[in-house]
Amino acid sequence: xxxxxxxxxxxxxxxxxxxxxxxxxxxxxxxxxxxxxxxxxxxxxxxxxxxxxxxxxxxxxxxxxxxxxxxxxxxxxxxxxxxxxxxxxxxxxxxxxxxxxxxxxxxxxxxxxxxxxxxxxxxxxxxxxxxxxxxxxxxxxxxxxxxxxxxxxxxxxxxxxxxxxxxxxxxxxxxxx
Length: 177
Hints:
Elements: H1 3-16, E1 25-26, E2 29-30, E3 33-34, H2 39-45, E4 50-54, E5 63-67, E6 78-85, E7 88-96, H3 113-119, E8 124-128, E9 131-136, E10 141-145, E11 170-175
Antiparallel strand pairs: 1-2, 2-3, 4-5, 5-6, 6-7, 7-11, 8-9, 9-10, 10-11
């Protein structure tokens, strides 16, 4: 979509009160934020709606861009994690924290494992860095799970996705290679 057409759509949405349509969560991307993309280009694209931060994962420098898409208010709704590559910073992983973003099948932050199970094949349960997640290889995504709600405290022991209770909620979506 050209910049002029995008501006026209956003302008119409603002004038009519109709929210701009958000891009779906897809394999390796959410809208223009794509794994492997030049971080400088993403940085420029989100002028006025970005913040460069250090996530400090495992006590190491972990640069990332907190991105706010047009039509949403959450300032850290999409997090593009960055790594050096080919002489430039590139997007390494993308974390979606805003419940406004959904996959084509309607799954996102706030969905239950039961809804996730109905929409996609659940490939594995992963744990690390304080998180437990269900992996969906079709999307190259890990769906982080709420460990504070019902059934959440026992998740560290689970390795079979079939044993994760349907009621457990998704807290974020992490797109990887």
